[in-house]
From TrEMBL:
<dbReference type="InterPro" id="IPR036196">
    <property type="entry name" value="Ptyr_pPase_sf"/>
</dbReference>
<protein>
    <recommendedName>
        <fullName>Phosphotyrosine protein phosphatase I domain-containing protein</fullName>
    </recommendedName>
</protein>
Length: 64
């Protein structure tokens, strides 16, 4: 499995720990609502929440 993720530093998931485990990687669990079937306003809110998670992650990376 590691050969498929040689440059991955983080694995971000909303799968509640069901992502494959690759030793030496940092795992982030981002609990977000499932947008399937949700109204447009709810989907936009979910999108914005994911964007905030990504922005927060980038802010923690060295050199950013």
């Amino acid at each position: 499995m590691d050969a498929g993720l040689p440059r991955v530093l983080f694995v971000c998931s909303h799968n509640a720990g069901r992502a494959p485990v690759v030793p030496g990687r940092r795992y982030l669990d981002w609990p977000v609502a499932d947008p399937d079937g949700a109204p447009s306003a709810a989907v936009r809110a979910i999108r914005d929440e994911i964007d905030a998670h990504i922005s927060d992650l980038f802010a923690t990376l060295p050199g950013t």
